[in-house]
Write a structure and sequence with these properties.
single chain; about 220 residues; 3 domains; about 55% helix; flat; disordered C terminus; binds zinc ion
């Protein structure tokens, strides 16, 4: 990523689009920016702008792909492969002729076909989708999920089990757990700060709070 000389400017290399100002904001985003009252709000707006620009960049690339030489060749390759597969399925003897008259290309076809067949019979990802079905993409060897879902699982926030914070020992246990989670990269900066804040709060309150249940004192007149 290149440095951008414009203050609060874009943090990508996608270039500017019609309707954006020199910081990459659309008119609507600009209005929100002027109304923003805190750095947090402004940061959120910058993130929102960057996300929109990335989305638009991808859309534009997707549209352009079909017009590139590679895009057209790949499309032809897929279509031709399917058509030829259909051909040899209907007349298996064609393959013998092809091996005799065009060995190079028949071998390329065979290689592609066996790779695809193998992929199709590979164990499937078990990741549950919202509609009650599972993902079905080929899973990574020795794992339960496909590449994408493995990454998603790893990125998922973990739940930390903190001890009871009622006494100093519990709080120290929680500090150790939190510190380990930070070292392991399981907590981001914001989460770690919030946890730190609560642990500090708990530590400063310990001793001031009586957790023993007080017996109710009934006064009778
Ligand atoms: Zn999957």
């Amino acid at each position: 990523m290149k440095g951008n000389p414009v203050i609060n400017g874009v943090r990508d290399d996608f270039g500017y689009r019609h309707g954006e100002d020199c910081r990459g904001f659309t008119r609507e985003e600009c209005k929100l920016w002027d109304k923003a009252e805190s750095d947090e709000e402004r940061e959120a707006l910058k993130d929102r702008r960057d996300e929109r620009r990335l989305r638009e960049h991808k859309e534009r690339e997707r549209r352009d792909w079909g017009r590139t030489q590679a895009g057209q060749l790949l499309k032809q390759l897929g279509e031709t492969f399917e058509a030829y597969r259909q051909c040899v399925m209907e007349d298996p003897q064609l393959q013998e002729k092809a091996l005799e008259f065009d060995q190079v290309n028949q071998k390329i076809f065979n290689k592609m076909k066996s790779t695809i067949d193998r992929a199709n019979s590979a164990p499937r990802c078990q990741y549950p989708k919202g509609n009650g079905e599972t993902c079905r993409a080929p899973r990574i060897r020795g794992k339960k999920y496909c590449h994408m879902h493995l990454m998603m699982e790893e990125a998922r926030p973990v739940k930390l089990r903190l001890p009871n914070l009622a006494d100093a020992a519990g709080i120290h246990g929680a500090i150790a757990t939190g510190a380990q989670a930070v070292v392991d990269g399981k907590l981001d900066y914001k989460q770690a700060s919030i946890l730190g804040y609560y642990l500090q709060l708990a530590l400063s309150n310990v001793g001031n709070v009586d957790y023993e249940e007080e017996e109710e004192v009934l006064t009778t007149d």
